[in-house]
What we know:
InterPro entries: SPC3
Membrane topology: Single-pass type II membrane protein
Distance between the termini: 89 Å
Order of helices and strands: HEEEEEEE
GO biological process, one term: protein targeting to ER
Mean pLDDT: 84
Keywords: Endoplasmic reticulum, Membrane, Signal-anchor, Transmembrane, Transmembrane helix
Radius of gyration: 24 Å
Number of domains: 2
Strand content: 35-45%
Largest sheet: 4 strands, antiparallel
Family: Belongs to the SPCS3 family.
Amino acid sequence: MHSLYQRANGLTGLLSSCLIGLLALVALTSFLFPAHPKGDVNIKTLKVRWGQIDRHPAQEWAFVQFDLQTDLESLFHWNTKQLFVYLVAEYTGSKGVANEVVLWDRIAKIKYVFRDFNKTFRNASAVELSVRYNVMPYVGVLTSGEVGRTSKERFPALQTQG
């Protein structure tokens, strides 16, 4: 005859094995739902101004307004816990360094500042915005992708405040 502890050990071993198998099935079935998000992002305005924001020293700051139209419905299914969507500006700075700056995200609803480490956008390459996403499932692999991308647009000349 088995003791109570041996029976409890056997039962918890069986239940944990069943739970792990069920979670593996949930993770695998997520690949059955094809994700084909569609989107379009356009730059409305792009301005460069001189000034000081918060604790940052006085330098050039870029301000961008954009139009975003997306259909992310295909990313949502029963295993989607959270969707993180963000806008990235990509450009090459005046010293030839490639930069990627997050300007906007959907979950935190924070607008980030857009500045170059060289403190100027003069001689920087054209900026290109892209909308990207990360799908966070309840169980399984994190997936990411890109929904849309703008055409390249040159940084305008520095504007005076007023």
